[in-house]
Amino acid sequence: MIPIYTVEEAEKSILIRKPIVDVSLPPQINKRIVELFGELLTPLEVVRKIINDVIEKGDRALIEWTWKLDKFNIGDNIEVKSELLESALKSIDDEVKEALISARDRIIAFHRKQPLSSWTTEELGGSLGQIINPIRRVGFYIPGGSAPLPSTVIHSVSPAIVAGVEEIVIVSPPPISSIILATCNIMRALHAKIRVLQIGGVQAIAALAYGTESVPRVNKIIGPGNIFVTLAKREVFGIVGIDGIAGPTEAVIFADESANPELIASDLLAQAEHDYLAIPIIMTTSQDLANKVKTSIEEQILDLPRSKIAEHAIKNNGGIIVVPNTERAISVINNFAPEHLSIVTKNPKQLLPLIKNSGGIFLGESSCEVLGDYIAGPSHVMPTGGAAKFSSPLSVLDFIKITSLISLDRKTVKSIAPLAEILACNEELQAHSEAARRRAK
Amino acid sequence: MIPIYTVEEAEKSILIRKPIVDVSLPPQINKRIVELFGELLTPLEVVRKIINDVIEKGDRALIEWTWKLDKFNIGDNIEVKSELLESALKSIDDEVKEALISARDRIIAFHRKQPLSSWTTEELGGSLGQIINPIRRVGFYIPGGSAPLPSTVIHSVSPAIVAGVEEIVIVSPPPISSIILATCNIMRALHAKIRVLQIGGVQAIAALAYGTESVPRVNKIIGPGNIFVTLAKREVFGIVGIDGIAGPTEAVIFADESANPELIASDLLAQAEHDYLAIPIIMTTSQDLANKVKTSIEEQILDLPRSKIAEHAIKNNGGIIVVPNTERAISVINNFAPEHLSIVTKNPKQLLPLIKNSGGIFLGESSCEVLGDYIAGPSHVMPTGGAAKFSSPLSVLDFIKITSLISLDRKTVKSIAPLAEILACNEELQAHSEAARRRAK
User: Which of A183, A265, B130, B297 has the highest local Cβ count within 10 Å?
Assistant: First the structure.
């Protein structure tokens, strides 16, 4: 049942990603679109209609779309009241509560180590530098659905708190589960201005980008969502900042013959159970390990409540790749740029400098991805779809921005203004040249 | 002729920005669209058609669109040959060449100071941290047109060189002026792998994002362009990284009664001459200064070759705002989040901590924006359209990405794995919980 590929086969199949925003919708969604809009619209058309509706009608649009799409009447309760957050926290098990707090504290502690501060240099004449300020107000999209992920609240909001973001607005489609509300309250213990709004989908993204009577306009929107949410984020990009285009979760585990096949199988299944689109890949130089992992997956999967999802993901999007040697494996990894990479070899540290593109690297058998998903320290929000080639895991950097400081001394101005004058003349910008000339005096 | 506003008037007019991507096209462009496509398409439809054409036909599409849109036959010469870059450099004045080199060297020197390095902490058990790697291949879009801006080549490419980007691909619509080619060659002196391609518009963005026979696929695209280029960048965002959505250039000069009105007027005109959409604003607490600046602008503008553009920009998009006090001015600035802010007051440093949103801050009468445009040190590519609320000037940061490192020690794994197990159970992810449980042993 579990496919084992050669690297050549894999490069023609599972290592090719489908573009995230070009998916075709299942028939039942298209049927729903026709019901809602009276005609079959593309996802982008749906997104634009809802965004424009929110711009025009504000809260009223939020109430209507939440009723139509989430079958939930939010009425005047777009914002979740403090008391509800507190009672949600009281309703969860102490054990879970304490685990959430420990996770929060480690994620916060890790991000406090991220070195980021304003700086100036006097070496270029006067004071030049970069001033770092937090982004003032940030919106977080927390997906709803059948399996709520409180860890996502912790892993998204923590770096923002460390960065000093003044106001945090969390949105999630109703009804928001108690565990998500409780986790919001756990984050609120560290930050006075966290608000939780029970809206989701395109309407929530539009409300965050443009503001409504009840929803404050934010400066940046963070968080994953379905195809509609993703397209909506891309539409409002520029009006607000966004964190990126999130696709299905991915893991590549690179193991040699020294690895424990049961642990590898277990980690692969953890990746595979996420959703039908999840990409779980094992790459190994050992045919023997490949066979043992395959057997162990087939055994372990029987016990899983989400075995159907896991099986689908492994069969369709992932599998086991046998590579001829480590060099080839490294080149596959750098080309694929996985969201998560686990290295389970005799001396994993040795390979570290060779990895150029990966969201996160998990070194050795103990540091499995699941620990990173919950509690290790770095945010579990990492670049998917090959974006690790040009973007980074969520970190304090995503919540600050730089202002360049230019405060030159007179002597330096006198020496460089004539050069600026020459360059401005050359660009045929006379007023620029004149402004420089007046400083050269 | 130069408008003087109260702050209330300004907040209802010049301080409101039009969305960058929602512009309506002038009739002659629409006519051209009908000629080219046989029907009137929206800008986004035009963009998608050209992108798909490049994906399908590669180089052939580049040659065809360059012929149709730029009236230029690039034939087999998509890439500009080395010899041409070298002869372009020889063809420019020594004075200009030396000024370009000085500018390059200062921009490079400034960005070398930007503190950015991999780090790890041992404080959370084992080794956790962030590994910094340069983005491997980056494309730069340099607009063509009647007034080529070689400074943009220097200010865009320099931070990439400092970051250690391996391959740099510069695109610009043909015919590329000698001065741009010469400047590319000046940058090439510092970096072995800089290629220059004579393609522009949507077709160049598509080629950089998807690759063709002659154009290597890049990981990120940097640089401003017209509405079509901007939309194309947004379309390919996710496939590659992009730097942001660039709008018209903006400057706010905040001055008190101590400022020299002629210098202020001169700086405003430098901003205003950029293009018809440029936003040049003076804000002052002094009615007297406002009047004097107005008079000086009206005098100085007469001598400018680009006086028509400058006049249009000042009258339609900018002007002079008289504010009742400094507090009000600061609040206007933070709300507007200008690309450039000059502070020309008795004690400009005092105001620095109050500015939260601005691309660059130019302190005092000597450090005028024009010096920053060419030679001061920070990149002149700064966030426009209010994006300074959530994004930063171009810097080394734009050319690196982080990989999170998770290498926990056994003791830590044993202590946190049970917590991960609890959280996974709570999220109903059985395989996650199992993977954690196996590590708790």
Answer: A183
Whether residue A110 and residue B121 make contact (CB cut-off 8 A), yes or no, is yes
For domain A248-370, give the CATH number. Answer: 3.40.50.1980
**Tokens read off for B356:** 């939260």
What residue ranges do the domains of chain A occupy?
A: 27-70, 82-242, 248-370, 414-439
Does B86 qualify as catalytic in the annotation? no
pLDDT by residue (tens digit) across B96-125? 999 999 999 999 999 999 999 999 999 999
Percentages helix, strand, coil for chain B (3-state, rounded to 5) are 50, 15, 35
In this structure, are residues A427 and B306 in contact, taking their beta carbons and an 8 Å threshold?
no
| CB atoms B114 and A114 under 8 Å | no
Within its chain, how far is the Cα of B248 from the centroid? 11
As a whole number of angstroms, the distance between CA A136 and CA A129 comes to 21
The string of pLDDT tens digits covering residues A84-120 is 999 999 999 999 999 999 999 999 999 999 999 999 9
User: Do residues A218 and A64 make contact, with C-beta atoms less than 8 angstroms apart?
Assistant: no
Positions in chain B short of pLDDT 50:
none
Q: How close, in Å, is residue A201 to chain B by CA atoms?
A: 20
Closest approach of A358 to chain B, Cα-based (Å): 6
**For residue range A39-83, what is the model confidence (pLDDT) as tens digits?**
999 998 999 999 999 999 999 999 999 999 999 999 889 999 999
| B364 with A407: Cβ contact below 8 A | yes
Whole-number Å distance between alpha carbons of A241 and B48? 23
Angle between helices A43-57 and A201-210 (to 10 degrees): 50
Structure tokens at A81: 């009241």
Task: Note whether B241 contacts A114, CB cutoff 8 Å.
Answer: no
Nearest residue on chain B to A95, alpha-carbon basis: B422
The Cα–Cα gap between B210 and B54 comes to: 8
Whether residues A371 and B416 touch (CB distance < 8 A) is answered with yes
**Residues B261-294: pLDDT tens digits?**
999 999 999 999 988 889 999 999 999 999 999 9
Residue given tokens 């992992």 in the structure block:
A293
A395, A360 in Cβ contact below 8 A? no
Q: Which of B311, B339, B365, B369 is catalytic?
A: B339
Q: Which two tokens stand for residue B157?
A: 């490419």
Q: Residue B300's closest chain A neighbor by CA?
A: A431
B225: phi then psi, degrees, rounded to nearest 5? -165, -175
Rounded CA separation A311/A292 (Å)? 17
Could you tell me if B156 and B184 are in contact, meaning their C-beta atoms sit under 8 angstroms apart? Answer: no
Domain A82-242 CATH superfamily:
Nitrogenase molybdenum iron protein domain (3.40.50.1980)
Q: How many angstroms away from the CA of A224 is the closest CA of chain B?
A: 13
How confident is residue A441, by pLDDT bands cut at 50, 70 and 90?
A: confident
CB contact under 8 A, A20 and B238: yes
Gap from A88 CA to chain B (nearest CA, Å): 15
> Exactly one of B340, B369, B380, B421 is catalytic; which is it?
B340
The dihedral sign for the CA sequence A283, A289, A294, A296 = negative
For an interface test with A, the pick among B149, B210, B220, B422 (most A C-beta atoms closer than 10 Å) comes out as B422
Cite the active site residues of A.
339-340
The chain B residue lying nearest A166, using CA atoms, is B356
Cα–Cα distance, A15 to A22 (Å, whole number): 18
Task: Report which of A420, A251, A255, A222 is spatially closest to residue B362, judged by C-alpha positions.
Answer: A420
